[in-house]
Amino acid sequence: MNATTLEQLVAAKEIVVTCGSGGVGKTTTAAALGTMAAEAIGGRVLVLTVDPARRLANAMGLEAFGNAETLVEKTPRGELWAAMLDTKASWDDLVRRHAPDTRTRDAILANPLYKNITGKFVQSHDYIAMERLYELHASGSWDLIVVDTPPTRNALDFLEAPERMADFFSSRLLRWLLVPYRSRLVNAASRPFYQVADRILGSAFLQDIADFFILFQSMYSGFVARARSVERVLGDRRTTFVVVSTLEPAPVREAEFFVKALTERRLHLGALVLNKVLPASLLDSRAAVAARRLCEAPGAVAKALPAEAGPPAIVEHVLQEVGQSFLNFSVVAAREAATRAELGVAPEVVATVPYQDEDIVDLDGLRRLGAALWHERRP
Amino acid sequence: MAEATPDLLSRRLLFVTGKGGVGKTTIAASLALLGARAGRRTLVCEVDAKGDLAAAFETPPLAFRPRQVTGGLFAMTMDTEESLKEYLRLQLRVPLLARLGPLARTFDFLASAAPGVREILTVGKLAWEVREDHYDLVVVDAAATGHIVGQLRAPAAINELVAVGLVREQTGWIRQILTDPATTGVVVTALPQEMPVTETLELVGALGETGVDVAAVAVNRVLPELFGRSEEEVFERLRTPALAGALATATSGSVEPVLDAARLAVTLRRTGAGHLERLRAGLAPGLPVLYVPELFRHSVGLRALTQVADALGAELGG
Lengths: 379, 318
Hints:
The complex is a heterodimer. Chain A is of the alpha/beta class. Chain A contains 17 helices and eight strands. Chain A folds into two domains: about 5-160 and about 235-280 and about 345-375, P-loop containing nucleotide triphosphate hydrolases (Rossmann fold, 3-Layer(aba) Sandwich), CATH 3.40.50.300; about 285-335. Chain A has an eight-stranded mixed sheet with strand order 3-4-2-5-1-6-7-8, sandwiched between helices. In chain A, α13 links the parallel β6 and β7. Chain A is elongated, with a radius of gyration of 27 Å. Residues about 180-185 of chain A have low confidence and may be disordered. By secondary structure, chain B is of the alpha/beta class. Chain B has one domain: Rossmann fold (3-Layer(aba) Sandwich). Chain B is built from 13 helices and eight strands. Chain B has helices at about 25-35, 50-55, 80-90, 95-100, 105-115, 115-130, 145-160, 165-180, 195-205, 230-240, 240-250, 255-280, 300-315; strands at about 15-20, 40-45, 65-70, 75, 135-140, 185-190, 215-220, 290-295. Chain B has an eight-stranded mixed sheet, with helices on both faces. In chain B, α1 (about 25-35) packs across α13 and α6 crosses α7 (about 145-160). Mean pLDDT of chain B is about 85; it is low at about 1-5. Chains A and B meet through α6, α9, α10, α11 and α13 of A and α5, α7, α8, α9 and α10 of B.
């Protein structure tokens, strides 16, 4: 049977991945889902989050940054834990695990290119997030892991990261580069490549690159096998993806793109969360009648009110502002409703979260948000 | 007081950045529109190729080769492979280029293996347009918060990593253009919300290490102040059942949603104002902060863009 609420969806899964474009409330949604799961479903729940707002981190008891999992709260039936992703530390862990010997390990960790790649490379961030997820899941100590994906330039980068990492290490170009390092015998086919690379980057730098990859190749087989495992976990039926979006044009475009990509890869699209949606009452036609009247004849309305309302001039101004404000917001609400009606995607669960007028600063805030997510059914 | 800060639009190269979802593209497109309106030959370039810039101008997808989208305003999208080709064409003898074969694989390799190559091809191309005086003003819809520092720091980083070669020779003049505050500036885009403000403050700090001047902070979608204090007291009284009932009769409509919407607007404005205070307090006193009001528009695209440009132009005092 298909899930009809997020509660049913989450209860049936071991990994929930939230994705979507920046600024749509992805991290908060992941945290709220984890909080609700620990309370309503129970078990050991971990929220793995990437760079959350500091106050959100505080709400989850994560003042101390780091890779280690931290207990946030014990619930009657379970535990809520949280962890952040530290890209550099995770890469270092990975190298320590896969390096064939301590000499290679230390040489890699000290290599300037390694530091550059792990610190600044966008793809390395995507890859390590998925790698960490795999590691946590394989440890068997979690009933549910909720992970929010890194803010990627291209929404698909993190899905493809394991595959690309494997491709990269088995690529012919990499072998080309390593050939002269080993034998100094450059064949005719690759010579123009070296001439150009040499002209552009200089041979000393090419040598640096070669050094680095020679070291890294010693970890090749472990690395590729690992990337394949990460891929398998993402495609497993115990994993589901939750796409988060607002009803603004750009995030919706990206969400639709995302849904399509998940479907093409046969990954499980569990739910679409529409966040920060303006209240439906803004579309109430009788309210619009009242608002227009307030805008057009605030004086007449003010006169009709009892004197206790206040000084007529002030009342008149307030009424006009109130009416105008409603009409302003209803324009945006109407656009949102149209966008929603045109949404070309239909996952099992669509949850709508109303606009939160205040920031979420503690677990109670996450629970409020979670409750709004939890029970919504497909209309 | 502000004499030391050059006028925003008198600079030659503007990088517009900000957290995802804050309206970076809208601000970049508006600044470009204002530049073109002021009679300057202007180029606007989208770096991440998402297509938002073309959507803002309501034009077909953009290409690497700039295309005029409106009077005096040209638009392009960055394609680092094309940028490399152009660069090689300028720097290398043609026969060698012809023997290179399919460039894509070589490029993929270079860009993946050598940190900073992709970045320098992006920044280098834009600085080149400025150096060659192809345009009076180049506005960049740049990388988001997480990547902009790496992008702007790339010339310096390459300098540290690469001892010789063509790329290194190029980093000198690129850095000169980037670090001259009369020529180049960064505009950080924010929203009056918690995360965008926090990221803006962190980014302004981090940009210090790039040596590129922060020219302004632009805050998008600032909600209007509905009431002063005495007006708010009146508003609270109107929400009491007795007065709300009288109001319903007087307007012959349904007033509860109207009052609720005003309440939401007041709360949102107040939460936002707190974040704006934090933003202002965290920035250097002389740094211009440009406020673009929430426009409650039902449209997107060119019409909305014109409205933002008008509002931004008013903020810039012109």
